[in-house]
From TrEMBL:
PANTHER family listed in its UniProt record: D-GLUCOSIDE 3-DEHYDROGENASE, UDP-N-ACETYL-2-AMINO-2-DEOXY-D-GLUCURONATE OXIDASE
InterPro entries: Gfo/Idh/MocA-like_OxRdtase_N (IPR000683), Gfo/Idh/MocA_Oxidoreductase (IPR052515), GFO_IDH_MocA-like_dom (IPR055170), NAD(P)-bd_dom_sf (IPR036291)
Gene Ontology molecular-function annotations: nucleotide binding
Pfam families in the cross-refs: GFO_IDH_MocA, GFO_IDH_MocA_C3
Domain GFO/IDH/MocA-like oxidoreductase: residue ranges: 134-258
Protein name listed in UniProt: Dehydrogenase
Native organism: Paenibacillus pectinilyticus
Organismal lineage: Bacteria, Bacillati, Bacillota, Bacilli, Bacillales
Taxonomic superkingdom: Bacteria
Domain Gfo/Idh/MocA-like oxidoreductase N-terminal: 5-118
Length: 386
């Protein structure tokens, strides 16, 4: 196989973007095999933009058509595990959009089934893992350049959404239709990057506000404290009502610090010797000089790296990596099985806020599902989940 025939399930914003990139020849080793959408208007749109392209309103029919070698799931979150499993069952490759699902129980079913099909490519669309900036941050951490992590802080409030955004569809910002708010819609990339770079915490204590500044039932404000189990702690803050927005990610180690501003600039401060050694050996005269803003060059070096962003480049990189894994066996940047980690973090934050207490990341999955179903029952618009 030299070109992977990709089936695009869902021709909305994401599916439409991917179709455009592929049709314009921007994605190596991929062609559009077929398009699927339940909306009749999308069939008309597809006929205009992609003449003579096979179109299906039933994704199972598309999977069994022989028109595709792989699919990407650009559909509501609850459907990602179901479609992923049905795709793999038919010996087709699966690229699942983020998040991998709404709750860990269903994502675990997807992962377990995918493990029975090791010959197939199973990936998740974490395009931020292709971002050279975050790849550099991970490299610095993995190389031990700032030592052992003591604290992480990420304030990512650049997700401003007006009320009109939520009013576009009855499924948006609902427990039964979308599965949550900012944690499952806007912030999954940051939740993935946080654990990919810094590791998974052991416990979470979260304060979530539901319908705080918008007329919605799900969370539009999140403040979560992370406990990594080894003394290190973290804070994760996000919301959808800050029109001025802040994106600042800080990682403190015992040998230095990394600060990422606006996902564009990395400031790396490397201590000449570990902070604990400084504490044990520095005389008070040198301490006073430091307090007065003197002699900092004798304590640490500072490096600033700037990164440009090309719109769509990260998405194209994920598609090309997916195809390269199928065609050439190139390692995946984001294996599908990794998708459960961000879902687990979001679930733990929801559960902590619902219960009003600290929650372990190895939480009771049935308890989470029961609490989620309580919210869905109150909405009385969607079926409860199994």
């Amino acid at each position: 196989m030299t070109n992977v025939r990709l089936g695009i399930i869902g021709l909305g914003a994401q599916g439409g973007m991917y179709a455009g990139f592929i049709a314009e020849g921007k994605v190596k080793n991929i062609v559009i095999g077929a398009i699927c959408d339940t909306d009749p208007a999308k069939k008309v749109l597809a006929a205009e933009k992609y003449p003579n392209m096979p179109f299906y309103n039933d994704y199972i029919e598309m999977l069994e058509s022989g028109d595709v070698d792989a699919v990407v799931t650009c559909v509501p979150h609850y459907l990602h595990p179901e479609i992923g499993i049905e795709t793999l069952k038919r010996n087709l490759h699966a690229l699942v959009e983020k998040p991998a699902g709404v709750y860990t129980k269903q994502v675990k079913e997807l992962n377990e089934f995918a493990a029975t099909k090791p010959e197939l490519t199973f990936a998740i669309f974490f395009n931020q893992r292709t971002n050279p900036l975050y790849q550099k941050v991970k490299e610095i951490i993995d190389n031990g350049e700032i030592g052992n992590i003591r604290r992480t802080n990420w304030m990512i409030t650049t997700w401003w959404r007006p009320q009109g955004y939520y009013d576009q569809g009855a499924w948006r910002a609902t427990w039964g239709g979308e599965g949550g708010g900012v944690l499952v819609n806007q912030a999954p990339h940051q939740l993935d990057l946080l654990q990919w770079i810094c590791g998974m915490p052991k416990k979470v204590y979260a304060n979530l506000k539901f319908g705080y500044q918008r007329n919605i039932v799900v969370e539009d404000e999140v403040t979560a404290m992370l406990d990594y189990g080894n003394g290190a702690t973290g804070v994760f803050i996000t919301c959808t009502h800050d029109v001025m927005g802040t994106d600042r990610f800080e990682i403190l180690g015992d040998k230095g610090k990394i600060v990422v501003d606006d996902s564009k600039r990395i400031t790396i401060k490397r201590l000449h010797k570990p902070e604990s050694d400084m504490s044990a050996t520095m005389n008070m005269q040198d301490v006073m000089k430091l307090f007065m803003g003197q002699g900092q060059a004798e304590i640490f070096t500072e490096e600033v790296l700037e990164f440009a962003s090309v719109w769509g480049g990260q998405h194209i990189a994920v598609l090309e990596n997916f195809a390269a894994n199928i065609v050439e066996g190139t390692p995946l940047l984001a294996p599908g099985s990794d998708g459960i980690h961000g879902v687990r973090l979001a679930n733990a934050m929801h559960l902590s806020s619902w219960l009003g207490k600290e929650v372990e990341l190895r939480f009771d999955e049935e308890l989470f599902l029961a609490e989620l179903n309580k919210k869905i029952e109150v909405e009385n618009k969607f079926p409860i989940r199994q």
